[in-house]
Design brief:
Length: about 625
């Protein structure tokens, strides 16, 4: 595939036609397609590769847009829905369109390589790849609006500030530049200072150093509802990347009324529950466990969000804290869920957030391979994965599940400050396994090196109620969606990674099957069951949580004809990968020339049947 200009995907990533006079996305790249363009491209892709691609809608959004799914599989001895499968999902967070572009570019690469690459052909004949390029299309459409805000959430009306009114106080483009950025307001009681090293940046004042804040930060706009707060209840909605049922962030903005409250999340869940052959997951979104693998304790790297955006969000969070129920109490992941001594209420159940010790090597191996293929060493902005799909994938669905923004910042020798949260933890003496570096300065440095117009300079503005303010900051979408050239360079590597991951899935086979006459109408049947894949048939956490069914080994005889040895039907919790074997033996009653079959079924490793003739 020739990646330059996305040739070969011209119908899929065709230039988006914008209404005359409206601003275009942050980098004005044709790679970022609106919903109609995306739909036309997917339909053309399916028509052009009928033998490999099936396109279907797995659900509809609140605004009636279809949630498209591509099934990529070649004709083979087993139907696609019975083969081990990789599930790829992108654009759960509305502002992260880059992931969908990469997912589709990787699909096109695989389709084009199918005709000439024996490995691709063999892989697509034995495994299936499901791709959801845009899980949250309602949210993604905001990228093509007249005024762009970088909205993460869908269009579901939601009372963000819990004041009994819905969507009544959103942001406004006060300076008319087409972007919703930030306002920094002089305030003697503020918490923030202009960074002396780079006046474009803001930092928290440190009282222990005798510093006093000079500014308060808000999103650009006015106080529409007259409650003294600014832009705390915008239109919409729910961030689908925070709406799944693991470590769900109760009562937090953008998380929804409850777990899986949204049609987009429900469609994904219905699909996964109906396709238990999904054996691995890749999510292109604003979380990460591929660029930075879980550490030796199984914990993810700390979040690395844009400090400027966090500062504004914290101001809004104080509004929600006043008007919302208190969050659920937190406890260490290994806390025993038992009643305290002397009885009383049991400790609160808290979700596991640490990778099982027996599974960590698999995550490290896949992460190492991802970095090797993509060359990505340093992630861009990354958030904590509360309610994230990939966390559900591992902790609730029991499969190896990975997340990545899909691109990264170049490594730099320039020393960068830690994030505000990490700096505060250091001052308080709290341990930090890996203190994250503030992404603000790194992004600005990268913008300058690449010639990207991704930051609006701070300019004075007369606010109707706040007086003299400055408006500026990171442009919406610029920090999450790199220029097309960056994605073009990474597309082939992500195709190879998805193919590599498909090659690691468990693959059950009968390595040996033999029958021996014992005399008196009795026969000994011996079978060797092998897992030819890299992953076990169930991860340790999948076994512990009982979310992955055991391997079933069944001999095709009447129960009364199985005289000794294994039962007619046996169950194996998991079979190790990379050639792991398990031996089964039966003494059976039969007759010479009779054919006896042994069937092996692994929920994540496929189904195979072999037959032996009694001698």
């Amino acid at each position: 595939m020739k990646i330059n200009g996305f040739r070969g995907m011209g119908y899929l990533l065709a230039a988006v036609v914008f209404v005359a006079g409206l601003p275009v996305p942050a980098h004005a790249d044709a790679a970022y397609a609106d919903y109609q363009t995306l739909t036309r491209g997917l339909e053309q892709l399916a028509r052009s590769h009928r033998e490999l691609v099936q396109l279907q809608s797995i659900g509809e959004t609140g605004q009636g847009r279809k949630i498209w799914m591509l099934q990529i599989a070649a004709e083979g001895p087993v139907s696609p829905d019975m083969r081990p499968a990789v599930f790829v999902a992108a654009n759960l967070e509305g502002a992260h369109l880059a992931g969908g572009v990469l997912a589709l570019a990787a699909v096109e690469q695989l389709l084009q390589d199918y005709a000439t690459d024996a490995d691709v052909k063999a892989r697509l004949q034995t495994t299936t790849i499901y791709v959801l390029p845009r899980v949250s299309p309602d949210a993604a459409e905001a990228m093509f609006a007249q005024v762009q805000s970088g909205r993460r959430s869908n269009a579901t009306p939601y009372d963000d500030d819990n004041d009994g009114r819905i969507d009544e106080d959103g942001a406004e483009d006060l300076n008319g530049d087409g972007w919703i950025t930030a306002m920094r307001v002089p305030d003697a009681d503020g918490h923030y200072l202009i960074d002396a090293d780079d006046p474009r940046l803001m930092r928290k004042a440190d009282p222990l150093k005798g510093e006093r804040g000079t500014h308060t930060l808000y999103w650009e706009g006015i106080d529409n509802d007259g409650d003294g707060f600014y832009n705390e209840d915008p239109a919409g909605g729910v961030d689908i990347g925070r709406n799944f049922q693991h470590d769900y962030p109760y009562y937090q903005v953008d998380a929804g009324r409850h777990m899986v409250s949204e049609p987009e999340a429900r469609a994904v869940m219905d699909f996964l529950l109906a396709h238990r052959n999904v054996a691995a997951m890749v999510v292109f979104d604003a979380s990460d466990n591929l660029i930075a693998a879980p550490d030796k304790q199984g914990e993810l790297a700390p979040a690395r969000e844009i400090d400027l955006h966090n500062f504004v969000a914290q101001a809004n969070a104080r509004v929600h804290e006043r008007r919302s129920p208190p969050p659920l109490p937190k406890a260490p992941p290994d806390t025993v869920r038992a009643s305290p001594p002397g009885g009383g209420r049991p400790r609160p159940r808290v979700p596991a957030t640490v990778i099982n010790a027996a599974d960590r090597a698999y995550f490290s191996s896949v992460s190492e391979r991802y970095r090797e293929l993509t060359g990505i060493k340093d992630a861009p902005a990354v958030r904590a994965p509360h309610g994230a799909l990939f966390e559900f994938g591992y902790f609730q669905f029991g499969i190896p599940a990975f997340a990545t923004p899909g691109w990264g910042l170049p490594e730099t020798d320039k020393p960068l400050p830690p994030t505000a949260d990490a700096a505060e933890a250091q001052r308080a003496g709290r341990p930090q396994n890996r203190a994250p570096v503030a992404v603000d300065a790194a992004l600005l440095q990268w913008f300058e090196e690449q010639g990207i117009d991704g930051f609006v300079p701070w300019t004075a503005h007369r606010h109707p109620s706040l007086g003299e303010v400055e408006i500026g900051g990171f442009k919406p979408y610029a920090a999450a969606n790199p220029p097309a050239a960056v994605l073009q360079a990474l597309a082939p590597a992500h195709a190879r990674f998805i193919l590599d991951l498909a090659g690691r899935l468990p693959q059950i086979r009968v390595a040996g099957l033999e029958a021996k006459a014992q005399g008196g109408g009795l026969f000994r049947i011996e079978a060797e069951i092998e897992n030819d894949g890299f992953f076990p048939t169930a991860l340790a956490h999948g076994v512990a949580s009982r979310t992955v069914k055991p391997v079933v080994v069944q001999i095709d005889l009447a129960p009364e004809d199985v005289v000794a040895g294994e039962a007619k039907t046996s169950f194996m919790p998991a079979l190790a990968g990379s050639g792991g074997r398990q031996r089964y033996e039966w003494i059976v009653r039969g007759r010479r020339g009779q054919k006896v079959s042994v069937k092996v079924q692994a929920q994540k490793g496929g189904t195979v049947t072999e037959t032996v003739t009694l001698p």
